[in-house]
Amino acid sequence: MNWVKKKNLLTIESILYEGQSCNTLPDLWHALHSSYNSAKNRPINTSFLNETPQADQILWPLFSKQEFKDAIAKCSSSSTPGLDHISWRHLKSLITNDRCLQKIVQIANVCIDLEFWPSHFKLSNTVVIPKPNKNNYNSPKLFQPIVLLNTTGKLIEKAISNRLQFQLSANGFIDSHQFGGIQQRSTTDAGIYLTRLIRAGWLRQCHMSVLAFDIAQFFPSLNYQFLSLCLKKAGLNTNIVWFFNSYHSNRSTSYS
Q1: Does a structural domain hold residue 29?
Q2: 36 Cβ partners below 8 Å, 6+ apart?
């Protein structure tokens, strides 16, 4: 429920989900969780992956200390911590101690070696905040979920993400036209590329247009079995694929 001030009167406005008012906390959390995971477990057809050639197998060396220093360098010290209550500021201070840094590196390497992601790294706290400048807040879609994870786990995830991106770029598995979320390919680069396409069309006396898609629930709706198949196609060995199977399974969140 939301408190709404109208003409100096304070009224209560219920959130509606599937035509029903959410008047209890269990109803409210169910509405929010269902809205943010609306496409979860939907069946998909993976047969189109058969057309993708199998990449050569990628070697996965042990992590280095420098990879973790690079991963944490751009993290904001003012970010809100997760359930561990450890902020980036605390972690940046901790890894200045070489022994502490070495322990974190060892945890990451052991997780990969054992094909296992610890359960306490899978626990999160989802903070729901209203999107700004809306006329009313009677729908779950008018709120934004912010997922707060264990900060040490997030640091290891960043190191893994950087390693994955490097490896997949090196073997040519990432499409050259992929800009979002790719290092050394910024929004400016995407704009320059789009401008080049438009001007090239004008030179050929063509009328140019742009069609943009905003895919709702993209990340919460990713099919993890499909991701595993992609990782195999990308040349990652069985050890890494099974690690990500553990990483994606049995995750849970609490709402606040």
Answers
A1: no
A2: 126, 140, 145, 217, 220
**What tens digit of pLDDT does each residue of 71-127 get?**
999 888 888 888 889 999 999 999 999 999 999 999 999 999 999 999 999 999 888
Tokens (6 digits) for 115? 């094909």
Q: Containing domain of residue 201, as a range?
A: 37-250
In a domain, 131, yes or no: yes
Distance, in Å, from the CA atom of 99 to the CA atom of 94, rounded to the nearest integer, reads: 9
Domains contained in the chain, number: 1
pTM: 0.81
Write the DSSP string, the chain: -EEEEETTEEEEEPPEETTEE--SHHHHHHHHHHHHTTTTT-----GGGGGSPPPPPPP-PPP-HHHHHHHHHTS-TTSPP-TT---HHHHHHHTTSHHHHHHHHHHHHHHHHHT---GGGTEEEEEEEEPSS-S---SGGGEEEEEEE-HHHHHHHHHHHHHHHHHHHHTT-S-TT--TT-TT--HHHHHHHHHHHHHHHHHTTPPP-------TTTTTT--HHHHHHHHHHTT--HHHHHHHHHHHSS-EEEE-
> Which residue(s) pair with 4 in the sheet?
11
**Residue 226 placed within a domain:** yes
In angstroms, the CA 140 to CA 102 distance is 43
List, for residues 160-201, the tens digit of each pLDDT value.
Answer: 999 998 888 888 888 777 877 777 778 888 889 899 999 999
pLDDT single digits (tens) 118-164: 999 999 988 888 888 888 878 888 888 888 999 999 999 999 999 99
Q: Residue 206 falls within a domain, yes or no?
A: yes
